[in-house]
Each structure stands twice: as C-alpha cells, then as structure tokens.
Amino acid sequence: MKKENFIETLRLEKLRKLQKIIFLNPKRPADRTYNINVTLSEQTPLERNIKDTRPQKCPRHYDISKLPSVSVVIPFYNDALSMLLRTVHSVLMRTPATLLKEVIIVDDHSQNEDLHEPLEKYIKLLDRKVHLIRMSKREGLIRARLTGAKIATADVLMFQDAHTESNVQWAEPLLHEILKNPKVVIQPHVDQIEQFTLEYIGNAGPVPRGGFSWDLRYVWMEMPQHEARRVMFQHEFVAHRTPTLVGCAFAIRKDFFFSIGGFDDDMQIWGAENIELGFRGWMCGGEVLNHPCSRVAHTFKPFAYSFDGHREKIVQKNQMRLAEVWMDDWKKFFLASTNSWPTKHVSFTVEEKTSLEKRKIMKKNLKCKSFKWFMENIIPEVPTPPMNAVYYGEVFNLMSELCFYITSKKYVGLTSFCFFHRLLPKNLFHIDTDKRLIYRNRCVRIDNTTKLLRLGECTSLDFYPKENWDVARHSEVEGMMYVDVQEGADKPVERLCATQVTNIFPIHYGKQMPQLLPCNTNDRFQKWRWTYKFNFTYDWDHYTTSIEE
Predict the structure, then answer these.
(1) Number of helices (H), then strands (E), in the chain
(2) d(CA 77, CA 455)
(3) Which InterPro entries has this protein been placed in (predicted)?
(4) pLDDT band for position 196 (50/70/90)?
(5) pLDDT tens, 140-190?
(6) Among residues 44, 58, 41, which one has the least CA distance to residue 189?
(7) How far is the C-alpha of 412 from the C-alpha of 203, rounded, in Å?
C-alpha cells in the first residue's frame, strides 16, 4: 500500500472512532431543545446515501474546468453537531475538488459543550479545506455569514444553513449560471429533511418561486404564466426567475455581493435578510434565480434558539429596515399590516437611523431601480392591496383549514388549496372601510333565500339593502366573521355569522360552503382567520429617514 493511501486509511479510521466517541454519550441538550430528532441523527451515517431528486432532463455533464471556484459558508449557533457535520460531509462528498476552495463554518458563540472540543477534534481530522471560525460574542446569523464571506477566497460564495444536505451535482448548475452572468444571485431547489424521521424528501412537480407577504415573510408561490412563457417548456431543467430567496442556501459571486452592499450588518440576528437581498439583487442590476437541477435539502423546523432579546421585535426591526430602504411608497402596506400587533411596535434609535441613511445613500449611488419597477416587472402577478382594506387576504376556517374561493357559478365555496401568509391572487378578499366584503372589485352578497354567499354588484337591489361586515376578533387576525343585515328601514337589524356547512341547496349540493347562521361562540366552524388586519392610521414618522436631495 502506498504511503498516501495508508495515511488516508488511518485518517478515516480515526474519524470513525471519533464519531463513535462523540455520539455514544453526547454532551448536548435533550432532543426537544433542537426541534429535531437528534438521537436518530447521531445514529445516521454522516455520509449517507440520498436519492437524486433532479428532473430527468437535467444536464449530467458540465465542463468544470471553466466554472468559477466556490467557498461554502455555514454559520451555526447551538446546532446539533451531527446535523452540522452531515451538512459539511455532504458538501465535501458532492462537490468537485477542483471547484471547492474551502468550507468555512462560523460558530456564532455557541454554548453547547459538543460544539467546542469535540467539534475541533473532528474538524482537524476531517479535511484541510474545512475551517472553523469562532465569533467572540453572539452576533447572529447575518453577521456570522458576513464574517465567513469576508475571509472566503473563492470566486463564488455559497451560503448554507447548518441543517442541510447537498445533493449530487448541486454546485455545477449554480456555478454555470454565475459563469454566464456574474450578477446573478441563485439558489438551488430546496428539498426537505423531515425533522423527526430525517427522511430526505425530494420536492417533485412544478418548481415554486419565492415571494413575500405584506408583513415581509417569505412565501412560496406558483410559477406565474408570464415566467412559464419565458422559459417555455424547459422550466423543469432551466433556471427561472424568483423575486426573493428562501435563505437556507444560495450562491453569489463575492465581488458582486460586496459591490451591492453585502448583507445589511445593522440587521440583528436573523430575519428579512433573504427578502432584502432578493429585492436588492433585482433592483440594483442583477438577477435572482432558482435552479431546479441543483438540489439542497433543508430541515424545516420551529425556531429553537433565543435571539438575546424579544424575537418578534428583532425581526420586526429588520423588516422595518428593509421596508424603509427598498419599498418606497409600498412600505405603507407593511406598516399597516403589522400595526395591529402590539408586540411589533418598535422604533429606531438615532444610531439606527444614521445607518439607515447610509443604506439609502448606497442605494442611490448604485442607481437602483424603484420598487414600482420591481412590482411591475418581477412580480406583476401580486396585486397591490386597496387603501380602504381593513381585513385582507385569505379567509381561512380555523376548524377545517379550508378557505374562501369563488366557484364557477359565482358562489363563495371552500377549498383546501389554502396558504396562510401566501399570496394567491385568486383567493384574495377584503372587508373595506364601508364594511363591504369585496372580491376583485365586486361585492360578496347574501342570497336572501339560502343565506349562501355569492358575487353581485355592490349597488344591486336584489340583495339586502344593508349588509355590514366585520370581525369579532379574539386575536389580531382571527375571530367570528359576522354581518349585520337589514331588510328595510322599518325592519330590525339581524346579526349573522359566516359558518362552514355542508350545503343542502341544489346549487353546489353537498359541498362545503360558508352560510350565514345565527352567531354561536361555541361553534368552531364560525372561527375564521384573515391574512392581514390593516391599519393605515398610525403615525410612523418617528422612525423614518430621508435622503437629503
């Protein structure tokens, strides 16, 4: 046996022994702390085989001699050691050695014992390309990523979460697109690692794209017709445009990343940086893509760790920075959608206003396009909410998890195709300041005979003369949706509540539909949730800034 082979065999044997020592009696918190089945993860090979989930038509061969090099940056904070190491192993296993410059794992001041000496011992044996960086204090994912990005030496940065797995040929499609256009921000198609079984689940079918809700959460959206037409019939294996990034894995040239401002390092811990980079990528001369032939799986789970402060307020302030710098007049919809939540009432300090001013000046110097351009050219399928909307979005039954939609016969039916905090234009309703229930500029009226709901003209005399809609709220966006009806001026006002029923009338017989019945606080089928409660009246001038002309 050659000396090199002997040394490699010895190294691998030491790694296997160290794995047994680390995971036999792990020095870590209980599984419930992580919201992941960590015990099973420690029993699962770090270099496990996973199925190739790419579409059949994806290219299998790339000229890697022409592709740019890549540094993979993986921040972590109190993550499960086995999940972190499996992430690193998957990158090392499935990235051509000539393309992979380094893997930089950045410890955001973790406290768990197994992430100190055990991790250091393992990294020393693993691969010379793997570098461990320790932050001197908790800075958050955003700044940890920036720390790794600044020391990376490759042409391209790949940011990846510490509970992901890279699939076969994940890198080549991304690097190929960046080679064609150096001003691309590109993400792989995100598969799923089930948090309790650790099953690798490939997401088949049409490739979704990333959007945003008006309260600036990331949402998945169907590929719209205008984008499907752009990529023709190749959308199964061609990169397509996405307005925003999911955030768990994406690649960008290092020089382009820093030329458009890197991450906003005055954002705290985590939250909104993925949407902000999506907006900025498009508005400042780049392109943001999703590639179905690159696959990286992510473990979607409830957030397990503290933010060293009030999580909602920290995320809200990040989102406010995003809205203030990039959304122009559209920021009013973000502000109105969060104004109803007392936990989200925050304000900027003088220092934070100064840093906001710097980001605005950067935007101006880069000659970035307006948010109006973004809405019209990148995400035109998303309608702008009307300014007189009080409740807006999907109307979602809390008991059945069905939501309003308009049937072919123009009645309001109930469908399971619902996405709370998703933007589906065909399912958007609103109650306006005149207490009318509206769908696409038409009123939802009450059938006098059946008490079912159907579309009608707002001024039509075929319905009750007076129909006033509102919500008896038991939270910011949830409650009993009621309507006060009056058949005539000499008649008493009657209050009825929207109730999910099995319809007994000939029209849509046997279907689940909303019907107006006497209100009953014990009836769980009378409890509904709207996507947004808008309040445009609050004075937000206490935190806004403006660029001096």
Answers:
(1) 14, 24
(2) 52
(3) Galactosyl_T_C, Glyco_trans_2-like, Nucleotide-diphossugar_trans
(4) very high
(5) 999 999 999 999 999 999 999 999 999 999 999 999 999 999 999 999 999
(6) 58
(7) 31
- Which has the closest alpha carbon to 480: 466, 464, 495? 495
Domain limits for position 429: 389-533
Predicted confidence at residue 304, as pLDDT, reads 58
pLDDT tier at 548, thresholds 50, 70, 90: very low
Q: Is the dihedral of CA 511, 512, 516, 519 positive or negative?
A: positive
Amino acid 100 reads L
Tell which residue, 170, 204, 197, 256, has the closest CA to residue 55. Answer: 204
Looking at the 3D structure of the chain, how many domains does it have?
2
First vs last Cα of the chain: how many Å apart?
Answer: 73
> CA angle, 64 as apex, 60 and 65 as ends, to 5°?
150
pLDDT in tens, 416-427: 888 754 555 678
Beta strand ranges found along 245-366 (DSSP E): 249-253, 287-298
Domain annotation covers residue 481: yes
Tell me which residue has tokens 């380094």: 102
Q: What value, to the nearest 5°, has the Cα angle with vertex 423 and ends 418 and 427?
A: 55
**CB atoms near residue 510 (< 10 Å):** 9
- The first and second tokens of residue 308, run together, are 């060293």
Residue partners of 241: CB distance under 8 A and separation at least 6: 209, 227, 230, 287, 288, 289, 290, 378
DSSP three-state, residue 88: helix
Beta bridge partners of 240: 290
Report the alpha-carbon distance of residue 403 to residue 412 in Å, rounded: 10
Amino acid at 505: F
Residue 296 near residue 328, CB atoms below 8 Å: no
- 290 shares a domain with 404: no
Within-domain flag for 228: yes
Cα–Cα distance measured from residue 177 to residue 239, given in angstroms and rounded to the nearest whole number: 8
**Do 244 and 212 contact (CB within 8 A), yes or no?**
yes
- pLDDT tens digits, residue range 372-385? 999 999 999 999 99
Q: Are 431 and 416 in contact (CB under 8 A)?
A: no
